[in-house]
């Protein structure tokens, strides 16, 4: 089954049954906004121990058909950024920022309208598929319900047929038989395939995948990544892929946003991130990545741990762990803004011009010692 769009050339020109559409005048799209645009977003949580600034002036956007990977160590704000952007934040508070979805203001949107977008134009795949699936409903019916919620006029028979087609498309064997089974009769990887089927059922414009392959073994991981890639190609959706795994990034992303302590510290095309990172934290992340052409002894862990987000020092948050610029006055006293590092990338490092040569020298030293 091909998930073709009504108009294959542009994702926005769909029929009137859509809950949302791109701005079109006289049949022409008048403004091609990024699918998702997050601008200067700051999110805080009030806790008994103090205020946690989980997201600190984060900006990024993703275009139709593009995969943006958001990477960083655990707790750096990757998930809270998207949850806040999509209006799914539980306890936290948005302190500042703007979020648009195809040009429409998501933060100011009435909750009812936003709910209509969720699960339809804007879908999510989370780490644990069991949290997304209802244990007491057959998987097929769950896929069919996803279709029916957004197209109530669809007949039950059509929804069933389309659900079976979707199950087949995501690689569920014997989909007509498996349609009637419950999630506990599926493996973790197979459950995630069902979740992906639900995520793409309504041909979304944006798919947010938050660690979608972390809970499955590596062979299944590769299959699921492949599936997500096909899903993106078939739907033309924009994808935000949240992961701490640079191997996943290399597999799926066109662009990468690296987050540290609630902030984006580097953003660049994927080849550039791997070839010539422009922030010492990115260099550190890459140095921890096992590679076939390197000995294990050449892996260099990043010393220390990320800061407590209730009390981030006023300088560069990475400074206490930074092996390039530690103890320099600018790093200790002034928060480096995210600035263009070259025509393709931005970096939040006071000494961005030194990063490449430092990284090269560091690599040389390690190889010599190995
Ligand atoms: N309900 C909450 N109350 C207080 N702090 C929270 C709450 N939810 C998240 N945080 C904090 O916000 C920060 C960012 O969390 P987030 O889940 O976005 O991190 P992450 O980068 O996605 O990490 P992971 O890879 O582990 O999912 C963390 O330090 C976390 O402790």
Automatic annotation (TrEMBL):
One of its GO terms (molecular function) is ATP binding. CDD domains: ABC_NikE_OppD_transporters. It holds the Pfam family oligo_HPY. Keywords: ATP-binding, Cell membrane, Membrane, Nucleotide-binding, Transport. The keyword Hydrolase does not apply. The keyword Membrane applies. Residues 36-286 form the ABC transporter domain. NCBIfam families: oligo_HPY (TIGR01727). This is ABC transporter ATP-binding protein. It comes from Planosporangium thailandense.
């Amino acid at each position: 089954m091909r998930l073709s769009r009504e108009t294959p050339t542009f994702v926005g020109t769909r029929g009137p049954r859509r809950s949302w559409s791109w701005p079109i005048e006289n049949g022409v799209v008048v403004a091609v906004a990024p699918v998702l645009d997050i601008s200067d977003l700051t999110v805080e949580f009030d806790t008994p121990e103090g205020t946690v600034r989980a997201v600190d002036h984060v900006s990024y956007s993703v275009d139709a058909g593009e995969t943006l990977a958001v990477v960083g160590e655990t707790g750096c704000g990757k998930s809270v950024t998207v949850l806040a952007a999509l209006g799914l934040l539980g306890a936290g508070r948005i302190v500042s920022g703007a979020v648009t979805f195809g040009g429409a203001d998501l933060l100011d949107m009435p909750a009812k309208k936003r709910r209509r977008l969720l699960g339809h134009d804007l879908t999510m795949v989370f780490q644990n598929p069991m949290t997304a699936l209802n244990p007491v409903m057959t998987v097929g019916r769950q896929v069919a319900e996803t279709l029916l919620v957004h197209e109530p006029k669809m007949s039950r028979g059509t929804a069933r047929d389309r659900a079976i087609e979707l199950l087949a498309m995501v690689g569920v064997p014997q989909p007509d038989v498996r349609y009637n089974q419950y999630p506990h009769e599926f493996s973790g990887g197979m459950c995630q395939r069902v979740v992906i089927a639900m995520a793409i059922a309504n041909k979304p414009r944006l798919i947010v995948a938050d660690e979608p392959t972390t809970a499955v073994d590596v062979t299944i991981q590769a299959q699921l990544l492949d599936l997500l890639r096909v899903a993106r190609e078939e739907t033309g959706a924009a994808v935000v892929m949240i992961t701490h795994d640079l191997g996943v990034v290399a597999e799926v992303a066109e662009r990468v946003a690296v987050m540290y302590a609630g902030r984006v510290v580097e953003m660049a095309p994927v080849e550039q991130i791997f070839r010539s990172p422009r922030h010492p934290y990115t260099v550190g992340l890459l140095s921890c990545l096992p590679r076939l052409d390197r000995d294990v002894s050449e892996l260099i862990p990043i010393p220390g741990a990320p800061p407590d987000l209730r009390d981030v020092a006023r300088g560069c948050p990475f400074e206490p762990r930074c092996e390039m610029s530690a103890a320099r006055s600018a790093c200790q006293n002034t928060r480096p803004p995210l600035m263009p590092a070259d025509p393709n990338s931005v970096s939040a490092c006071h000494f961005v011009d030194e990063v490449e040569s430092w990284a090269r020298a560091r690599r040389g030293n390690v190889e010599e010692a190995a």
